[in-house]
Amino acid sequence: MQENWLELQAAFNKNACYVLATITDTQGPTYRKPGTMMLIAADGKCTGLLSGGCLEVDIALHAQDVLLLNKTKRLTYDLKADAELLWGLGLGCDGVITLLLQPLTPTNDHLDFIHLLSAISMRKPGYYQQNITDNKIPFARFVEQEAPCLAVDNNKINIPIIPPISIAICGAGPDAEPLVNLSQQLGWKIHLWDHRKQYLAQSCFNVCHHKLKIRAEQATSDNFKDLDAIVIMSHNLVNDSQFLAKSLAENVNYIGLLGPISRRDKILNEHKIKSDDVEGQVYGPVGLQLGGRSPQAIALSIVAEVQQHFTNTSRIQ
Amino acid sequence: MNKSNTMYQRELLKHHQFPVGFNQTINANFQAFDENAFCGDEISVEVNCNKKGEIEQISFKGDSCAICRASASIMCQLLKNITLTSADSTILNITSTLKAKGDLHGDLIPLNGIKQYPVRLQCALLPWTTLGNIVQQYKCQIEEVASCKKIG
Q1: Residue A111 has what pLDDT?
Q2: Min CA distance, B28 vs chain A (Å)?
Q3: B2 pLDDT exceeds 70?
Q4: What's the gap between Cα A312 and its chain centre?
Q5: What average pLDDT does range A212-222 have in this prediction?
Q6: ipTM of the predicted structure?
Q7: Vertex A60: Cα angle to A12 and A115 (nearest 5)
């Protein structure tokens, strides 16, 4: 997974100044890897996470210089053995991490970062190219295209930008609440579908990006456009069957079906589909076998499976 | 990291591992405590100074990070046998230089590494600012004595 783009979008103000911190190189074990970005506001508030420790605070202090001088800055935290003991900045993982800090200001058009965020909103992938030469005039640009692999050389880094997972949850019952919460934590774009207005209106679902009052038989191609994943959990066999058929017809990348194997096969049989034919696309019973039984544990197993699916199914060209 | 940085880092590490004045029992006539709530450092500095205002013994104790402890150790090594008034100038020099990202000299050079890790600045300064509180206590005492003499 990349950044929590929705969180970054929410934090970004086009009239404000920021510093963009990017990991350009790592050696040994580190919490995050090259291409990871974090936005630092002028008041030091960080959106995103580079190290998981108190490195962020140190970086935010360096960021003040970057804004003041309006120049790029490279930082290397070599926190192996003695150095970690001494400086103890929280990496604690025996690694070396190199960062690039770039000023994003209205004067330099925020180094095309607004273009990047706007492309994310429109679900357009691409790559963000940054010059990584130290102490130079800041430069970066966003290029819309199929996301390439991460590429780094002495002068620049090309970071693949992939829109967040867009997931539809069919069914706004009580078991959807933990699933919505976990999906939100992961920075996914959440669509919640149900034919019951009152269920959709519950305050616990306010974090959803899109709530749709819809019956399974009413769903059209447009509803499935731009969906990466769908979790079918309406608890109604007929509805689930229709949602499944339409999801398959629209070739949704991940389709999760709540319920036992017998129920999954019953639904698949209705459409004359064998489970082997949809292996790697239809997951039923939905979720990894993590051993939990509570609604929260089941939700965890579902998001874990979705995460695993999209990690294994690369969305990078 | 270049050779000299490595050397100074080793020096700091040595101070952390074998701190000068740490947990030493002295016949203190001044004591001050301070803490860095952000890092969790807690330090208590004790000083025994003679009638001339010279530091005869100085020690520190408390739970602190490696940088705070190394900095306190350098302080104990450096300030023995100098007057509290001179110590005040040293404290001012260290505080202003490190805050301005300037270069310290002599025995204080190992602390220049702080520039690379600004988040550790408060840790390095804590022993010195705590000693600064002792200097203030000393100055108040001198003033009290002076005013008593006047009245007498």
Answers
A1: 96
A2: 30
A3: no
A4: 15
A5: 93
A6: 0.72
A7: 25
pLDDT at B1: 54
Name the residue in chain B with its Cα closest to that of A57: B119
pLDDT of residue B9: 81
Q: Give the whole-angstrom CA distance, residue A132 versus residue B76.
A: 43
Domain annotation for chain A: domains and CATH numbers: 5-161 (no CATH), 166-312 (3.40.50.720)
How many Å apart are CA B71 and CA B39, to the nearest integer?
Answer: 15
Q: Of how many residues is chain A composed?
A: 317
State percent of chain A over pLDDT 90: 76
A222-226 CB contacts, 8 Å cutoff, 24+ apart: A223/A168, A223/A193, A224/A168, A224/A250, A224/A252, A225/A250, A226/A123, A226/A166
Which chain B residues are closer than 8 Å to A19 by Cβ?
none
pLDDT band with cut points at 50, 70 and 90 for residue B149: confident
**Where exactly are the structural domains of chain B?**
3-151
B3-151 placed in CATH 3.90.1010.10 = yes
Unique residue bearing structure tokens 């300030």:
B79
Query: Model-level pTM?
Result: 0.82
Q: In chain B, positions 6-35, which contact chain A (CB-CB < 8 Å)?
A: 9-10, 12-13, 16
Residue B104 has pLDDT above 60, yes or no: yes
Distance between CA A120 and CA A126 in Å, rounded? Answer: 9
Among residues of chain B, what percentage have pLDDT more than 90? 68
Cα A290–chain centre separation: 22
pLDDT digits (tens, 9 = 90+) for A239-259: 999 999 999 999 999 999 999
Beta bridge partners of A100: A22, A74
User: Among residues 56-115 of chain A, which lie with CB inside 8 Å of chain B?
Assistant: 57-58, 61-62, 78, 82-83, 85-89
Q: Which of B135, B131, B33, B132 is nearest to B84 (CA)?
A: B135
